């Protein structure tokens, strides 16, 4: 009897996990388009403002954020508060730690990531790629380190806002996708649409 229950539980779990990974073509299309445009805009600004291989606007954590805000749009980690707040908090922590311990990487790197996690938890802005944003401030190139606290504004804030506005456009193009998951945004959008239709 116990073996049958275990087998049944295993089959149900396997089915649920398999079903969770099924994403229809429309979802894949909009995920691709949103991330392509979002990262494409960052790359475009990068090519205009900076030359060479030192990609200042294209910090690695933006790739991870793209997976969340274009691919898993209902996740709590994908919401605008988490996206913007998580990156800003982490960038500030990363720059601060880098300034306090610039030459002790074995202390600065783990301290920046750990403090960023704690502060994101305290401020309810937990966004997993934020850990990478803090780490990049510590281990990044000299060009990134020379930015100091400007790193928080550009590339982090500028890049995050580009990703967010792109997500707001592409994640709401069809009725099947709704971003952010908080209803307040959608109430305001519907009011604006009604006003535009009346005019």
From TrEMBL:
Entry keywords, A to Z: Membrane, Transmembrane, Transmembrane helix
DNA damage found in the keyword field:
no
Where would you find the membrane-spanning parts of this chain? 29-49, 55-73, 104-122, 149-170
Q: Name one Pfam family in it.
A: TM_HPP
Does the record's keyword annotation contain S-adenosyl-L-methionine?
A: no
Q: Which PANTHER family does the annotation name? A: TRANSMEMBRANE PROTEIN DDB_G0269096-RELATED
- Name listed for the protein in its UniProt record: HPP family protein
> Which source organism?
Flavobacterium hercynium
């Amino acid at each position: 009897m116990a073996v049958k229950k275990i087998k049944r539980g295993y089959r149900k779990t396997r089915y649920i996990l398999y079903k969770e990974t099924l994403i229809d073509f429309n979802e894949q299309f909009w995920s691709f388009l949103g991330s392509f445009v979002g990262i494409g805009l960052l790359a475009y600004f990068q090519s205009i403002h900076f030359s060479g291989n030192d990609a200042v606007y294209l910090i690695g954590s933006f790739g991870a954020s793209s997976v969340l805000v274009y691919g898993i749009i209902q996740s709590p980690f994908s919401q605008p508060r988490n996206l913007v707040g998580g990156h800003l908090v982490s960038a500030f922590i990363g720059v601060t730690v880098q300034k306090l311990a610039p030459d002790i990487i074995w202390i600065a790197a783990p301290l920046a990531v750990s403090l960023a996690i704690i502060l994101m938890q305290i401020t309810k802005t937990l966004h997993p790629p934020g850990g990478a944003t803090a780490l990049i401030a510590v281990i990044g190139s000299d060009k990134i380190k020379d930015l100091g606290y400007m790193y928080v504004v550009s590339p982090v804030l500028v890049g995050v806002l580009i990703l967010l506005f792109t997500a707001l456009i592409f994640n709401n193009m069809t009725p099947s996708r709704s971003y952010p998951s908080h209803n307040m945004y959608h109430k305001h959008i519907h009011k604006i649409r009604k006003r535009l239709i009346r005019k």
